[in-house]
Design brief:
The protein is mostly helical. It is 73% helix and 0% strand. The chain contains 6 helices and no strands.
């Protein structure tokens, strides 16, 4: 886990991205329903916490300072992922479409990460160029992340809540 208060917001988010990429790779290599399900649940927890700290702290801090369309797209991408996360958490590795859902989630996250930190004019570049205290944001985000991870370990997080779409 990221060391609390020792890094800027973008470094914390990038570390989260690398961790989830590694977990998706582990899922692909895993054998046995139990192992796959354990890794998938860990992916879901990591992504729920990541989305929460972005939506509660990071995105509001950069709203109005970066391209609003890019930020709106990030929220909608989160919501698409949240729908799959809730489906994966509610299901089990032996169920039909389980692995397909994890694979599609991986593809969505890869696209989202590309737009946040790798493509030209990405959110991270825009945030770095804006008048935002990334160090203070990082400290706030690390504290919230630690709180959410403790919740996840002790009793679990509630299902992911969408911000831009209604779920049926």
């Amino acid at each position: 886990m990221a060391s609390q208060g020792k890094q800027d917001a973008l470094k914390l988010l990038a570390e989260d991205h690398r961790k989830v990429e590694d977990l998706f790779e582990q899922f692909e290599k895993a054998s046995g329903d139990g192992r796959k399900e354990k890794i998938a649940k860990q992916i879901c927890t990591e992504l729920k916490v990541h989305a929460m700290i972005e939506e509660e702290i990071f995105y509001p801090a950069i709203r109005g300072k970066i391209d609003g369309d890019d930020l709106d797209e990030a929220y909608v991408e989160h919501d698409g992922a949240k729908v799959l996360i809730n489906e994966i958490e509610a299901g089990g590795a032996g169920e039909e479409f389980y692995e397909a859902k994890v694979k599609v989630l991986q593809e969505q996250i890869e696209h989202h990460v590309e737009e946040e930190e790798k493509s030209r004019g990405n959110l991270f570049q825009q945030a770095r160029a804006a008048d935002v205290d990334l160090q203070a944001l990082g400290e706030q985000m690390a504290a919230r992340k630690a709180e959410l991870m403790k919740m996840a370990e002790s009793g679990g997080l509630p299902p992911a809540q969408t911000a831009t779409m209604e779920t049926i």
